[in-house]
Specification:
The structure is a homodimer. By secondary structure, chain A is an alpha+beta fold. Among the domains of chain A are: 58 residues, no CATH class; 94 residues, Alpha-Beta Plaits, CATH 3.30.70; 186 residues, Orthogonal Bundle (Poly(a)-polymerase, middle domain), CATH 1.10.1410.10. Chain A contains 19 helices and 16 strands. In chain A, the strands form four sheets. In chain A, strands 6-7-12-11-10 form a five-stranded mixed β-sheet, with helices on both faces. A four-stranded mixed β-sheet of chain A has the order 2-3-1-5, sandwiched between helices. The longest helix of chain A is centred in the last third of the chain and has 34 residues. Chain A is globular. At the A-B interface, helix 5, strand 4, strand 5, strand 8 and strand 9 of A face helix 5, strand 4, strand 5, strand 8 and strand 9 of B. Chains A, B: InterPro entries: MTPAP-like_central, NT_sf, RL. Chains A, B: GO terms for molecular function: metal ion binding; poly(A) RNA polymerase activity. Chains A, B: This is Mitochondrial poly(A) polymerase. Chains A, B: One of its GO terms (cellular component) is mitochondrion.
């Protein structure tokens, strides 16, 4: 419990760099947790106090702007594996002050270098050559992705220890299980899982850089456009290796321009006109997709899916290793990312619980990377948030409560839907609930193991069960479009599997007593036990027993009906 | 004759603005002619002497650079037809000094405005709005094409006389014939035709502007690229309304970069690689074609013809009214444009003769806008140049003579072909030949009416007939690739038609005596007579007579052979 209270929770806030507080230390009163371990190294101790304050003040959009600006001052450099880090930094600092840098591996060694000034990039570009390959031809598009090579590979690279690589993917499953078994208690197992799976500061920076590189391509024709990450990359629930959702905002499409008031004339640009915003979106995405495909270094497997409800371009960005989805102007999606970010930032138990439940669901095939009738990560997150709203006292507020806290500037009506909620974290009172994650995880399984999915819907706006508006097996209200079910795709079989597994896991958590959770126990315990694939089998057995029982019940009812009919 | 000698010939050289010299005036010794009537208005008298000198010094490439630079400072503005020119200029001069402007009509009233500084465009763009159209959507690509509207159309535009429009197309055929009939003599008829058909200074500027607008699109991704006009737009033989051939030069494709020598590393851009320069060309043209199609205001009917020998993108540029062909890196084509420019600049009789012959060929269906077995304008021009090389004394030098005059910097070897010739006009001694255009036109028809097309080829490099390397009905050596026949497409029927018409026209010119060439004569005379469609019919009749005669000759020969065979 002590270590649970001893953390502050602010996922990936730049400049936030304090370590976990000592158990029972001065943070005790705050009941919030921090797990961004990667930060600890990058911020010098003397800056901690200040950045803690300023980071806490920052809203989601301030953070987005700050990170985007940072990304525009950043370059990506493919280096020899045996690079001398010191010489490398010395060489680059001829072009300007370096704020930050790190190395990672992705089809070679890459360095992310953040300059202090944008001008440094132009200076570097001035000395950069177009590659010349015998019998091949290059498309001379000049981006911020460079290849650095040694003038004298033999002497320069001799016996050099390789640089430290920052991880860009999650730990192997068996290693994770081992780590979990070494934890003190179930609650810390959940934190350990989150620490291993969540996006690192470096990976988040890389995501903003990838967006910024695509933004360069879009800005060639639309200088007012921006490309920003949304979804799991920024909503604080993303795990390492998750897809990178990019949003292209053209800034001006369909918006009424300001009339300037000089002289007797109006001047307008002559522009192509199309009958629908959708057509404009499709055309622009199509051309930008072609530019990415034909010019963008390292962009592979570009697929244009322009006739989808939300037209998109998919591609794999090899230098950063991200699978990217580029869409146009979807402001509601950005608001949704912000809402999750707020929930994730209010109390660290939120993210720890959601990470663990998602991991558990993935192991047992409740969620899937293939579209289909499976429950999605987004639906699971909504279920977890709903569960946390229903605790006594609640751990997080309902969306309606967040809306009540909103300022005038928080007001957002998008396509007629009210997307208003408070953006300022300071306005939201911390919870007084002190339940452990062990309790919460167990109760989550118990709650949904017994949830009346057949008649009730889940709605984080209200924070209470409602009657289902239709007969969908699983009904979760879209937080901003209340009439939409975000889990319309889910079929009855999947709901039943989820319920059976939840019951099985609740049973396992309660069954295993404290004695089993000691270190060096050979059998996996706690969360690790729940992540064993064998559970699915036993839950299925239980399900079969349930099915048999319900069959028997049905025949009983039928016979009763027959008997009563005979009597009439 | 006097008026023939009284002109100086420098087609469309910026800053050249003197009117025709008086007959027998001070220009008499120069035996060259000027017809750029449009210039006279735009250059103030005191600048004439200087610009005459500087313009004469300018080479083709200096001119291209100067005009391209001019075009980059120029904007295109769609105005209300009843615009007040003074108010318009006053309004625009808020953004900077205006060097030049003019109006023309093309689906509305357009103004071409050349600022003195490039920055003025940015200033104008600052006050320019994105158009907002109810129920339509615009592609927010910001170009240098604007729409200007009156804030108060009723009071501002009331009873205003419309501005002066510069012509962008040739005179109607019947009007041309009338004008020709009003000329003093046949020679002046040829000059009149050239004056009416040739590109004006304004139209040439508009062509460079159209290229510059496409260059903006290309430079978005390839900042070192240029888009330049080539072919008839700049070779001094273009007529109003001719297609605009554009050449995209990416600057770097396939060229070895310079190695910069700083520190222990090399830095290169990471770039897409393709196996062939052709593939690179196709990809780049394809994407730029899509950009023009989807973003470029006023670009219509974009067609990508990427599998042609020389991949190209065709489109119609509505604001300028040009039909454009965009190709990539064809340096030989640029050299060819320069060669024609030099020939056209050496002696005004060259252009006057070529314009008249082309017009004559078009009227009689010898050339056609549809590809096929017709003789092309380029072939006709080569024939005329060849004819002028064969006069005594020659009016223009052979290509080998021009090569002999070349400097080290004139040396151009393109794909193994020698494209070397002197670029500096001052090095080429003016001709001493003083024949009139009347004589030249007549002799042209006579010469080619009797040319041994069956055994001889035409080669402007040598300036003399050669044995045909193959049996093509018409063989004209490509000036730079001597082994290629530029008229390979032409079939025997077309050559026969050309010969028959040439003979008929030579006969008409000789038959009509001076008395017929008086003013107010009802029957067309001289060149006008040659442009009557009825000639084709009578030439055909002559051809029939010829055919009959040759048939008779053949039977005679056959009978002789039979007789001799009998004797053996």
């Amino acid at each position: 419990m002590a270590s649970l209270l001893g953390r502050l929770c602010l996922p990936h806030v730049p400049g936030v760099g304090w370590a976990r507080c000592a158990p029972g230390g001065p943070c005790l009163s705050q009941a919030r947790l921090c797990s961004a371990g990667a930060f600890v190294q990058s911020v010098p101790p003397q800056e901690e106090a200040d950045s803690k304050v300023s980071a806490q003040k920052k809203t989601f959009s301030e953070l987005q702007v700050e990170r985007s600006e940072q990304a525009q001052r950043t370059v990506l450099i493919n280096c020899p594996a045996n690079i001398n880090e010191k010489a490398f930094l010395k060489y680059l600092s001829h072009h300007g002050k370096i704020n930050d840098h790190y190395f990672y591996e992705s089809l070679g060694t890459y360095a992310v270098v953040e300059f202090s000034e944008k001008e440094s990039i132009a200076s570097l570009q001035d000395v950069t050559r177009t590659p010349y390959v015998e019998k091949e031809c290059t498309i001379p598009f000049k981006s911020r992705i460079f290849t650095l090579s040694l003038k004298n590979p033999v002497t320069q690279g001799a016996d050099r220890p390789s640089v430290h690589y920052h991880k860009q993917s999650t730990i192997l499953c068996k290693d994770l299980l081992q780590k979990l078994c070494r934890a003190d208690n179930v609650s810390n197992q959940l934190y350990t899982l989150m620490d291993e799976c969540q996006l690192t500061e470096e990976n988040t920076k890389l995501r903003f850089l990838a967006c910024s590189l695509i933004q360069d391509i879009a800005r060639a024709y639309f200088p007012d456009s921006t490309v920003q990450p949304f979804g799991s990359s920024v909503n604080s629930f993303g795990k390492l290796g998750c897809d990178l959702d990019m949003l292209l905002d053209l800034g001006e499409i369909g918006r009424s321009p300001i009339r300037t008031n000089t002289g007797p004339f109006y001047v307008e640009y002559q522009m192509k006109k199309v009958p629908l915003e959708r057509t404009a979106t499709q055309r622009i995405l199509s051309v930008i997709g072609d530019c990415i495909d034909n010019f963008g270094p390292g962009a592979m497997g570009v697929q244009k899916i322009l006739n989808a409800r939300c037209p998109l371009v998919k591609f794999s960005h090899q230098p950063t290793g991200f699978q990217c989805d580029l869409t146009v102007s979807n402001r509601a999606a950005i608001r949704c990312s912000e809402l999750l970010y707020i929930y994730g930032s209010l109390d660290s138990r939120v993210r720890a619980l959601v990470f663990s439940i998602r991991c558990w669901a993935r192991v047992h095939g409740i969620t899937s990377s293939i579209p289909g009738s499976w429950i999605t990560n987004f639906s699971l997150t909504m279920m977890a948030l709903f569960f946390l709203q229903k605790r006594t006292p609640p751990i997080i507020p309902t969306l309606d409560q967040l809306k009540a806290l909103a300022d005038a500037e928080d007001k957002h009506i998008i396509n007629g839907n009210d997307c208003t909620f408070a953006s300022n974290l300071k306005k939201i009172k911390p919870t007084e609930n002190t339940e452990t994650l062990h309790v919460l995880l167990n109760d989550f399984f118990e709650y949904f193991g017994n949830f009346a999915f057949n008649k009730n819907s889940i709605n984080i706006r209200k924070g209470k069960e409602q009657n289902k508006p239709d007969s969908s097996p699983l009904y979760i209200h879209n937080p901003f479009e209340q009439g939409l079910n975000i889990s319309k795709n889910v079929n009855q079989i999947q709901v039943e599997r989820f319920v059976a597994l939840a019951r099985e896991c609740s049973w396992i958590l309660q069954k295993k007593d404290k004695s089993q959770s000691s270190l060096c126990n050979k059998k996996p315990w706690g969360l690790a036990a729940l992540l064993q694939p064998s559970i699915a089998k036993s839950s299925l057995k239980n399900k079969k027993q349930l099915a048999l029982a319900s069959e028997r019940m049905q025949s009983l009812l039928d016979s009763l009906k027959i008997n009563s009919a005979k009597r009439e």
